[in-house]
Write a structure and sequence with these properties.
Blueprint: H1 13-23, H2 30-41, H3 47-60, H4 64-77, E1 88-93, H5 104-114, E2 118-123, H6 133-139, H7 148-158, E3 160-164, H8 165-168, H9 176-182, H10 187-194, E4 202-206, H11 213-222, E5 227-233, E6 246-252, E7 255-261, H12 285-295, H13 302-317, H14 324-336, H15 339-352
Parallel strand pairs: 1-2, 1-4, 2-3, 4-5
Antiparallel strand pairs: 5-6, 6-7
Helix pairs in contact: 1-3, 2-4, 3-9, 4-11, 5-13, 5-15, 12-13, 13-14
Length: 357
């Protein structure tokens, strides 16, 4: 603990000032948030102080400038993966939607890679869900503990790289216990998707709260993203919905548009098999693995459909398809041909040859 910040348990005056403002629901400037975030992420604050700050931010409501300031510090402290190209796409979500669905975006990355794009996915273990992306990949036999250079080589060899969050955000150790003990959504739920270690500028990003779509699009615009589609379905998923409406904010060429998409926008009819949401829910890792394999098989069903819809959107933002409809056609071709499943198998095989750290 830094003694210049904590004197006999008394926080630094700047921390007190920030807490005072937040308690009065006064927004912090980008610079103030950067300063505060740096103290949090370097372990200069006590657990109680960190908890007070992130809860005060949650109660007040985080602004675009506050989130930008926080992301900038997170990006400064990240262990980067240099892929030597901006031609990569990320599929990610904030989580926290409480729906307990299988790992849709993780399954979709095999489709997207199979269709020819390079994917750099950033993820971790489950916190509140039954299976996180890291848990799922390990369940298939993937070695997730790769160095930055090994991730780079993996992308070059397989078209896919998985960046296990704890390996690339060591500073998160200072807030992990607080987040776990609080057990509520905080600013850190949105910081993960905004701090991809490979600096992906093209993303399909699922958001747990419809009200965050526009603000996070503004954040990404400020930070220099190229093409991002942020989505939240009307049934609460941080994914593109299997049926019904999905609300979106799209950042493209510096402009932000908002609207609603449905399966019809993908050239897909609105009918699904049985209870659409219940059919993609899971209770454990094995169920998630089974649905992922089902989604990558040639057998039609709700799992395949939702993965294809989300893959289509990723192909669109990644530049592999000019429209969502063409993205959906390409996604279905990649699935039905078996190429997506081959990508999964090749990814498992390649990473398993790397000695575990």
């Amino acid at each position: 603990m830094n003694s210049s910040v904590l004197l006999s348990g008394v926080p630094h005056p700047k921390v007190l000032d920030a807490l005072g403002k937040l308690s009065k629901k006064i927004d912090l400037s980008r610079g103030e948030m950067r300063s505060l975030m740096k103290k949090i992420m370097t372990g200069d604050l006590s657990v109680a102080q960190v908890a007070a700050i992130i809860i005060a931010l949650r109660v007040k409501g985080e602004t675009v400038e506050e989130i930008v300031g926080a992301v900038e510090i997170m990006r400064e402290l990240v262990t980067e993966v240099n892929l030597g190209s901006d031609e990569i796409v990320d599929l990610c979500g904030t989580g926290g939607d409480g729906a307990s669905t299988f790992n849709i975006s993780t399954a979709a990355m095999f489709v997207v890679a199979g269709a020819g794009l390079k994917v750099a996915k950033h993820g971790g273990r489950a916190v509140s869900s039954a299976s996180g992306s890291a848990d799922l990949l390990e369940g298939f036999g993937v070695n997730i503990n790769l160095s930055s250079i090994e991730v780079r080589d993996c992308v070059e060899s397989t078209g896919i790289g998985f960046m296990f969050a704890p390996n690339h955000h060591p500073a998160m150790k200072h807030v992990a216990p607080v987040r776990r003990d609080l057990g509520v959504r905080t600013i850190f739920n949105v910081l993960g998707p905004l701090t991809n270690p490979a600096r992906a500028k093209r993303q399909l990003m699922g958001i747990f709260d419809k009200g965050l779509l526009r603000p996070l699009a503004e954040v990404l615009k400020t930070l220099g993203s190229e093409h991002v589609l942020l989505v939240h379905s009307e049934n609460g998923l941080d994914e593109i919905a299997l049926d019904g409406k999905t609300f979106f904010a799209e950042l493209k060429e510096g402009k932000i548009t908002e609207g609603i998409i449905t399966p019809e926008n993908f050239g897909c009819d609105g009918s699904v098999s049985g209870d659409s949401l219940e059919s993609i829910k899971i209770e454990n890792l094995e169920q998630s693995k089974n649905l992922v394999l089902e989604s990558l098989s040639s057998n039609p069903g709700n799992a395949q459909r939702i993965v294809a819809l989300n893959s289509a959107a990723a192909l669109y933002v990644g530049g592999a398809a000019p429209t969502l409809k063409e993205g959906f056609v390409k996604a279905m071709e990649t699935i039905k041909s078996g190429v997506a499943r081959e990508k999964l198998d090749n990814f498992v095989k390649y990473t398993s040859t790397i000695q575990k750290n």
